[in-house]
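hiii so my PI (J.) wants the whole complex modelled not just the main chain, which honestly fair. so below is everything: two entries, each one labled with what it is. i double checked the lines twice but i was tired so who knows lol
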Amino acid sequence: MNEVVLTAESPARKAREPVVLSEHIIEVISDSGEGAQRCGQSLGAIAARSGNGVWTVEIIPAEIRPPARSVAGASGNRIRIGTHRITNGGGKTDLVVAFNEQVLLGRVHAGELKPGATILLEDMWRENRDPAIVEAYRRVHDQLIAAGYDVREIPMERECRKLVSDAKRGKNMFALGMICRIYSFSPEVAHDQIGRTFAKKGAKVIDQNVMLFDAGYAWAGENIDLHYMIPSSPAAGPQMVINGNQALALGVLASGMELCAMYPITPATSASHYLSDVFENVGGMVHQAEDEISAASFALGASYAGKCTVTITSGPGLSLKQEALGLAVMGEVPMVVIDVQRGGPSTGQPTKVEQGDMFSVMFGSHGDAPKVVMAPSTIEECFHSVITARRIAETFRMVVVILSDASLATSQQPVPRPEFDPAWVAAPLDLSPVGEGAKPYDWDAETGLSRRFIPGQPGGMFAMTGLAHDRASHVAYDPEINQTSLRARSLKLAALERTLRPPKVHGPEEGDLLVMGWGSTRGAIEEAVDGLIAEGHRVASVNLTFLQPMQPGLKEIMQRYRRVMTIEGNYSDDPADAIINADNRRYSHLAMLLRARTLVDVDCWSEVKGQPIKPDTIRSVMLERLKGDAS
Amino acid sequence: MNDFTDPTECLLRLHDEQFALEDYQGGVPRWCAGCGDNAILSAVQRLCRDENLRPEKTVFVSGIGCSSRFPHYMKTYGLHGIHGRALPLAEGIRMTRPDLDVFVNTGDGDCCSIGAAHWIHAIRYNMRMVVMLHDNRIYGLTKKQASPTSPIGLKSNTTPRGSWLDALNPLTVTLGVQNVSFVAQAVDWIPEQLYAILQAAYHHKGLAFVRILQRCTEWLPKLFDEAVRDPAHVQLLHHERGLSISPALAKIYPNRLEHDPRDINRAREIASETDPIPVGILYHNPDVPCYEDLRHHGLGQHTPERIRAGLEAEFDKFTIHPHTAAAAE
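here's the output for the full assembly
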């Protein structure tokens, strides 16, 4: 099928066998608004439908409309395609389609391209009316060739102009056609995908895009002597291609929560955009509040009055919500908080990934304010974490924070389509009368749990308060009461911990090095571990989905390895820095917690470059630690 | 009560459901003797009784400050929140629970200083609730600091040489916000009008903003002395569409003004007056839409079946259709 010759004109010489690859990373980049995003997403979908493993990462410029042809303005997608399931963005890029040389330069400077990578470069700039552009194009082109890249100039504009008057609309489909030809993807699947993508725009638009796709496909067949094939392994069941923020929003729908209060903030907002579009279909709503504090307070008020609610934010918003979260802790009002982490502190790097908020969600509100903290590590877990968070929040009357991040938020992956389970959905409000003498905080002596009263329940009237209070919610003037109530709220974490199971070890049950991590780094860590195991190293990893409380049995697992370290996307001191020593070294968040909790001498390595940590980087770090172990 | 067809049972039930003042009385107030908050509490408890509000269907929400202890003294549901955030807390309740009556008690620091952003937006949302601004023009609980409504020149612990800025006027600010629908001013020393204003506020479909000038006997004992002693410093507003003035009250307060509460421009002029103090309904527009009504069409029909249907429709959008024939040939 992949070798079907599209047009009669295609010469037979192209029918030779493609080179079989286990995986490749492909980028499509352009100025904003030229359609590289759509091209990349379509490629991801075509590969997924063909049964390949796929991981798509958006390349987003910081500005909405950066100047055309600017180094920092690259917009597009990076698609990693493999034979098997892919769990992360992988290493460096093998093949790039670039609509101009400047956006490409940005990617080269960022070190994203493999040495010798193939570059398919739009050549229209060579004949631009502006001599400065011609000069810039030639200079970059020559530099790239000198640097050893396999640069191929492609007359995309010229070829598209043969078919449409405005090549800006549709060049992306020409590019998609070329890529599909190079990687032996079926034009049939591509045509169907184009049909679905443009379904709302009607047959005329679909036909035009198919025509451009076919032109690109044919042109590559004639003119590009690259021919690859990434064998696929068909998926077990139906798959959905979604990103982490869509998964979170779908999780909100599935959890039975009916209200999300939020304030716009990057990179969390796309979850709320999607939710705003669909929530009302199931009887829910998104409230865009006047600020982050109001969003948290509105959600808290709604939760107090009934069903658990959710607020979605990122770092700076989280800082502003802290006081309201403290009230929810004190009043034992269930709430779900989704924090899609970005670079910090302060405004930091809004569109870039970081895992820097663990401590601020755990310890952020003043006083002892225990909250549950969870960290989904895959797109699939983003969906299920919200459902679980809602249930924990209501059962334990607690605030549950879900820590996602910018990488999960914007990465796309095929995930198994979930089977609806009625148990996901919150129960209807119980407004039955409260028995005589029942108290709103009748803390169980062992677990700290108590039954929540909801307005509308006769006999349950009480004034919830942020002041220290007794079992009846009366303001506490007796010092014993504060001790008792803090104990009850803390015990709930222990009670939850007793329901958790130890984490699964990825790799051998004992060995030389155990890597521990949380959140979006999981895929890259496990890939590095798998590679090292294949080479005979005795290494393993553990991913923690619960950060507070932590899953049981960690110390016992850690003791089975000669060395334990964390790999994280938050800042930690480099022990090689001149003034850093054992007394002043600041560890990564998880490492610090694990050291405190287990008294195991946990080492760490972390990076805050705003990019997902690559498996190769992790591999090097692990090899270095293993070397240290041998010496 | 519609459930009961047997008239006897209906009558019994009716008898059961007549609440007395004690049914709304929670903890013993810890406000100072003579504090204006006590007068507001009495008026509110009376209103609850007269309107026969079910205690379990009534919620008092507050922020932080002397005013905000209010929910503790009511035997209804209450939410004593955080400083400045009473309004968004109340909005969340109102949005998801239209069956509840929502009251907000806030102070001049809570509403006009730390919570000012929420105040403006709450007016714009126009969600049905009665907002009582307990305005004593001073921070009480933290012990005498100037508030935004403190008179210029006021000596306080943070302004020992006198406050620098002219006082903010909560009435003109509120009347300047789009979607404002009900603004009134009451004073704690005329309980009859305080009650009448709160009653009108309760019946308003939208956000009813009631500024209540309230004496702080501890920190500003003399601030309202003149107005309390000399009725000439008070001007009672009345209109067929607003409040009427009882003959007894009319005897005491000769200074009266007929004002149509539909007239927002006149309302703004009256709001700017500080001597005599206008008391009554300044503005009332029953036709401003409420945010909860605009947003409500989905809520309340949140069934597992509907969630499932919606979710499956979304899953369909993202589901990819494997192309088995595309496997290597």
